[in-house]
């Protein structure tokens, strides 16, 4: 039977990990939350070792995402995609920054080719990244897919600032923990 509805969920433990009243001001606080989400996701055995979050420029947390590919049987359910879609639903806008505010996506690891493409259209002004793609491919079996050689420059030219290597060692540690676990998603 054809499905006329698509339903995606985030895990119930999110509410225990995330402080929705906190203002996340610095790059370290923002990527730190993304890494914490990734760590909890593998701790619960609910998905891949990736977390992401969208913040308003005033530090308010707008949305979070973790990798949900396996529990949702959905190849697009990466952490960044979940965070983008959740923010767009919450703000009732297919472009997150449609209201004129500046918004940031923080992610525990460099976006894959799918999430990179989504970042171009999602309506964010900044991209903050923990681990590098080479860390992901060194420490896990995930493939980041084909990206433009100057992927960061392509985003910058579209008005999206990119900052990398934020808490990179902590982000690498989550990937390494997952890699050693023998789990494969
Ligand atoms: Zn992705």
From TrEMBL:
PROSITE patterns in the cross-refs: CYT_DCMP_DEAMINASES_2
Domain of life: Bacteria
Record key words, sorted: Hydrolase
E.C. number: 3.5.4.33
Domain CMP/dCMP-type deaminase: 25-155
Coiled coil region boundaries: none
InterPro entries: CMP_dCMP_dom, Cytidine_deaminase-like
One annotated GO molecular function: tRNA-specific adenosine-34 deaminase activity
Protein name in the entry: Nucleoside deaminase
